[in-house]
Amino acid sequence: MYTSQEPAGRSATASRPDRQSIPDRQSTADRQSTADRQSTADRRSAPDRQSIPDRQSAADRQSAQAGRRGLHALIRTKDGWAVQHAIVTVTDLTGQQVARAEADAEGVVSTGPLAPGVYTAVATAAGYTPAAMTAIATGSGTAELGTVVLARQGGVDLPPPGIWTLDPAHCTIAATAQHLGLSTVRGRFTQFAGRIEVGTDPETSSVAADIVAASIDTGNGTRDDHLRSGDFLNADAYRMISYRSSGLTPAGPDRWIVHGTLTLAGVQRPVDLDLAYLGTGPDPWGGLRAAFRAGTELRREDFAMTYNQVVRAGVNLIGSTLKVELDIQAVQGASVP
């Protein structure tokens, strides 16, 4: 009896693990299948999930731009130039200042959020007439002023941006020196060329000019020959006198300080020009012309022009400084008609 029952018992015992292993194998297969299906679904949905932040980011950016808070304005001249460093001051109805902001390089002004209400905004800039306007801040704390136009003091609009070419027939480059401590000797250069590049931002404008040193004319041949010699211009060794600007600084209504480098008799020195803008107008040949006046003083010794004679105690034959005056007329474009 035991012999027949023991195999049966062992068979029953052995069969239980087999029955238990079937669900395990199915479970493993199911898990793998489920994982595969999930992985496939994940791969299919991954691009969609990745694109959601991009779409949201773009929407957020648009929303941020549309819902920006504070006072905003664009400060421009009459002819559309950005007025850099313009200041906009915002006051409430009691006259108390509540905000102040400076324009950036593009003429854009932005303040912090404002409480809903009515304000007065005043835009100011050196060389321009102040402009006052009413600003209404909405419930979101935003006030849009749009484009604010500032008129230049003196009423002269700057020339349009672009290239302007000097017209030698209507320009004068003159130098004056003291003679004998009593009077002055005046001379001018008769051969030169140059151009002005007016920038969209006036302070980025530039000037370049070249003068033939030997073209000096004081009305006296002997004196002119001496000025062309090595005692002064040294025109044989250094044929050209050149000036290259490096920047401009506003100095008042229609006035600028031109910063640059002058090369004279082989010596380079920084030289500033006091520039006045006189206006723009049409010419008889269908062109547009702009007029300027500029001046500076040079020390002869700065350019190794040390020649002199003492005619009496404390008095030299020639003064130590030169007064340079320029009357400039430039034609719009790269050439003169």
UniProtKB/TrEMBL annotation:
<dbReference type="InterPro" id="IPR007372">
    <property type="entry name" value="Lipid/polyisoprenoid-bd_YceI"/>
</dbReference>
<comment type="similarity">
    <text>Belongs to the UPF0312 family.</text>
</comment>
<dbReference type="Pfam" id="PF04264">
    <property type="entry name" value="YceI"/>
</dbReference>
<dbReference type="InterPro" id="IPR036761">
    <property type="entry name" value="TTHA0802/YceI-like_sf"/>
</dbReference>
<feature type="domain" description="Lipid/polyisoprenoid-binding YceI-like">
    <location>
        <begin position="163"/>
        <end position="331"/>
    </location>
</feature>
<protein>
    <submittedName>
        <fullName>Polyisoprenoid-binding protein YceI</fullName>
    </submittedName>
</protein>
<feature type="compositionally biased region" description="Polar residues">
    <location>
        <begin position="23"/>
        <end position="38"/>
    </location>
</feature>
<feature type="compositionally biased region" description="Low complexity">
    <location>
        <begin position="54"/>
        <end position="67"/>
    </location>
</feature>
<feature type="region of interest" description="Disordered">
    <location>
        <begin position="1"/>
        <end position="67"/>
    </location>
</feature>
